[in-house]
Design goal:
globular; single chain; TIM Barrel
Length: about 350
Amino acid sequence: MVVELQSVLAKSGVTTGVGSLPHRDSREAAAFALANSPELPCIPTLPRRSPAEGMIAQAVVGIQGISLGQYGSLLVDTRMVHPLAPVRTSLDDDAFGALRAFLDGARDHVGPVKWQFTGPITLGWALTRAGVAPHLAFDVAVRAVREHIRTICDHIGAALPDSQQIVILDEPELGDLLDENHPLALDSAIDILSGAMAAIERDAVVGLHSCGTTSLAPLIAAGPRILSVPASEHLVESAAQISAFLESGGWIAWGVVPTDGPLGTSVERWWRRLSSVWCGLVQAGCDAMRLRQQSLVTPDCGLALHDAGTAQRVFEQVREIGEKVRTQALATRLTVGA
């Protein structure tokens, strides 16, 4: 039975993280995640602690013919790579150190938890660049991602049986799909994404994250329950798709605080940007109440390239905007008499 999203995300404006943190100590990172997003903590990855926790490095664990070189680079023996070879997901691997620390520190947590994993398009593209033939690379990628997220989901479920899981596949390379030189056709990419999400969609709420300015069409067409995207004016171009997505019960995790530039001392700039995006979407036909009520609030990407102090300030600003979203959602509900 598919998990009902509304039962997991009972209110709008809930804040959470996006993947990586800058910490080098797994226990400190777990405590940070639990303290800064208590309603929906995000299990972090820590690529500064170990290159094995990088996006691609973590995703290739257990793939036959592929190993990690120095600083997380891929070493590929193309003779050994096979689409039907078993993928062995060992959660004792160094790549999952932060996951183990989080589960140890979250024994008393009973609410939902969120985690992210590299999506099959991004993994397949990385394998292609490493020398694997394109058709083989994407076959291996979808098999590996399905196996990894199924194993991780089961492991978290056993450790935190009272916590509903929200799982986001991270696809920063989706923008390349529109490149005429990309080895995947758009329809094939959508099928691959759908197939990966299907591995756990009956046990978790599954979504897609892309921190680029790619079209939302392939993300929505793949059938996620949550879209995780930066709050950018270009989203107004996809108003029709966003409207249909919200009408079908989907939620949007708005990346409201940028992680690629100076923060500033106030959230007003970021709040004005989100409000401007919402205003443009409403003018283009989106339902104002759904935009606010079916919303999560996040940084726009991971924080591995920053320091712990900056990460703390980012989450403080995210929480402040989350409160504004929650207040507006309540006001909108009262205005329409809901």
